[in-house]
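To the team - guanosine-5'-triphosphate complex, inputs and output below.
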Amino acid sequence: MAEAGPITLDIVTGFLGAGKTTLINRLLADPALADTAVIVNEFGEISIDHLLIETGGEEGIVELGDGCLCCTVRGALVDTLAELAARRPALRRVVVETTGLADPAPVLRAVMAHPGLSRLYRLGNVVTVVDAVNGMATLDAHEEARSQVALADRLVLSKGALAQEQERQALARRLARLNPQAGLFDADALEAAARLLEPGIAPRRVPPAGHHHAHHHDDHDHAHGPDAFRSVSLTHDRPLARTVVENFLDLLATQQGEHILRIKGLVETVEAPERPLLVQGAQRLLHTPQHLPRWPESGRGTRIVVIGDGALDTGYIGRIFAAFAGEAQVDTPDRAALQDNPLAIPGFRR
Ligand SMILES: Nc1nc2c(ncn2[C@@H]2O[C@H](COP(=O)(O)OP(=O)(O)OP(=O)(O)O)[C@@H](O)[C@H]2O)c(=O)[nH]1
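Output:
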């Protein structure tokens, strides 16, 4: 029997909320990419990405535990890739979605320098998604984002329709300066997504180890070089009125907006408890919440993760969420007073 050929390994990266999962769904919908498995890595202890990837079943998705792919869960990635390789020849391609905070260089090195894996896998493309609305500020502020762009074989500009044309063009020029070799694609104009993963012309260079990459892990604080990130997970087990959720998000944006990098969560609403409400935000851009068709097997209940810079006040966010969530159960005239002052103690009139 002929030996099965290597599996192509592609990496989809991009800063928090740039549109990686959205792009992966487009890739998976392309019949040219049947026989593809997806490995998802998320930052923040509540993971919902695997619920948002549409493969028609969950067996094609492997979720790595909470932690950064470029450090804490690198070993888990290596193990997962080795396990997936046993599915050859049926499995032809693996796409790894990194956390928005990962520097893809150590990930590439971990695979290509591994004697077993480098025989089983062939490196395909690094596809980096850059959000047209937040991209410029993100590149200014975060070294990880610049590294993601610099390592890309293909760059995809997302959310173009939400940005000003001038902004979009300036960002495209900056991307071309940062990485002149990479092909630049507009997500809105991308017809056959699988084209992004076609073999490129330039030979891949995996950057040498030893570049500046300092870490500390302290609960969910995470620092890469000069950047530091914090996250807070919010959960609630009873349905919340949609207005309560909207008011919470409004207050969050007003009070902590400058520190927020990503908001993502599922909410169980009073109005439609059968269908989870997906809440998404990337920096100051809050996307319109949408209902998903059904709850995942892991069950109902609200879970929201907020990721921000080192100045994100996670304690404050926890307190205002608790105040709003508690308020939803107190259906009394105090409701309005509490909405005006979410830090008020439920039932306590001023
Ligand atoms: N209008 C528009 N919205 C987009 C586009 N790409 C992504 N979005 C929206 O942006 C939000 C974040 O998209 P995701 O695909 O979840 O982003 P992500 O990069 O996977 O996020 P993280 O995994 O949390 O880093 C969602 O609400 C998407 O619907 C786009 O090209 N246009």
